């Protein structure tokens, strides 16, 4: 990164900042000395092969796991009640109970989060072709992901963390879901999206972070990356992870 980019970054209040964050599970290093920052109004792709540390990074940002060392800030707050109120996290596994209907899952989210927006949630349900009366247990994997996204994006959060949001959605529907991401996220907020399906999703990214064996190996603006390398993000990803 250039000096002027550094100065610009320092002037904008960062939504998320990691400084030298490391995390081990037993003797397995899941994150190694990761430093990054995400400013407002950005859609950031978090890319990495299986086990590279994407979920760990998101869980630490969401305040669900603690780093062993390093510091994390969300709009200047250390992880805790204030930072959690600013973040909407979509985990890679369903967070609703299987006995719930779609409507009950949304009501639960509404009761839990002060920033839940009922109007947005209604528009998202229509967009996702879900009905309040649908039973969560009878939804297909792809429809469950649509519900997960509806729950996450129905909040007016500052930072959305979406862990593999389109893995179970069929290729035809992916474009529709990506359009929902772009349409329903808040202008001044930012979104970090982890994925393996880079070719499908790279069109929505402003910036990508590539993580390999717990280390951040690349952080770049997508336009710049395409201009510098003459390659798509997907092509570059395949090169970086060729031996994984
Ligand atoms: N709770 C845990 N206990 C032990 N090891 C863990 C735990 N969570 C993650 N790990 C290990 O940490 C490393 C990073 O895992 P993580 O889930 O963050 O990767 P990921 O990039 O999200 O992978 P995937 O794309 O397969 O979901 C892996 O080696 C994983 O086995």
Automatic annotation (TrEMBL):
Keywords: ATP-binding, Nucleotide-binding, Transport
Membrane spanning residue stretches: none
PANTHER family assigned: ABC TRANSPORTER ATP-BINDING PROTEIN ALBC-RELATED
Record keyword Cell division present: no
Stretches assigned to the ABC transporter domain: 16-238
Protein's UniProt name: ABC transporter ATP-binding protein
InterPro entries, sorted: AAA+_ATPase, ABC_transporter-like_ATP-bd, ABC_Transporter_VariousFunc, P-loop_NTPase
GO terms of molecular function: ATP binding
